[in-house]
Amino acid sequence: MSETASESRVACIFGATGGIGAAMTRRLVDDPAFGVIHTGSRSGRALSHPRIRPFQFELTSEKSIKAAVHGFKDALPDLIVVATGVLTLEDDTGPEKSYRSLDAETMAEVLAYNTIGPALIAKHVLPLMPRDRRAVFAALSARVGSISDNRLGGWHSYRASKAALNMLIRNFAIELGRSHKQAIIAALHPGTVDTSLSEPFQGSVTDGKLFTPDYSAERLLQVLEGLTPMDSGGCFAWDGERVPD
Q1: Per residue in 136-166, is it b (16+ CB within 10 Å) or e — as a string?
Q2: What percent of the chain clears pLDDT 90, i.e. is strictly above it?
Q3: DSSP 95-162
Q4: Are 198 and 163 in contact (CB under 8 A)?
Q5: Are 197 and 88 in contact (CB under 8 A)?
């Protein structure tokens, strides 16, 4: 049964033109529970639909993030997903296989996109989350950000950026939990998804473990719906399993 306009939920997707972000947007459009879906991208383009409100932002610009969030004031989101991130940079610099390949500028850029950008989004959207009902903030992370689960090493900047993101998620959960008792702050591991981000590394993926963006989006949204405030601060995989710290 559709909810009335006054009861409709509001979602916000940062990175709504990426593989997973776009798939999440399509899923939310098909869900009558959501009356407004804010969709953000660098270009400002969006799926054409009366319930979608597109906005433009630049992940490395706090000024643009603050301006975008200001536009939510008449429809405050209770579901916020940061579906952004990089693995290979625009100059085709990929994950380092050895510490000998470490480069300061590359590390700074990976951290800017995978850690600092999502943190700045959180800085400006967390204060808008409702205190009187359930609300969710989630960011795409990765299993390789787990310190205790690391058995292979390598991919230094990417692993470090996701581990740092996971720590920030834990921090935000603790801080927001003091004032927003029903809030859920979570990191998400989407699996290996058939997008431009993973394309150079798909050759080693086990059969049946390369997911379509739609499948991953469906599973991640289901995982978020099943989380409780007791789960806040954790990282959860597409299958609902909690990723080790």
Answers
A1: bbbbbbbbbbbeeeeeeeebbbbbbbbbbbb
A2: 81
A3: --SSGGG--HHHHHHHHIIIIIHHHHHHHHHGGGS-SSS-EEEEEE--GGG-STT--S---HHHHHHH
A4: no
A5: yes
pLDDT in tens, 93-143: 789 999 999 999 999 999 999 999 999 999 999 999 999 999 999 999 999
Chain centroid offset of residue 199 CA? 19
Intra-chain end-to-end CA distance of the chain, in Å? 39
Query: pTM for the full model?
Result: 0.91
Contact between 160 and 95 under an 8 Å Cβ cutoff? The reply is: no
Task: Look up residue 83 and give its two tokens.
Answer: 């579906």
CA dihedral 160, 161, 162, 167 (to 10 degrees): 90
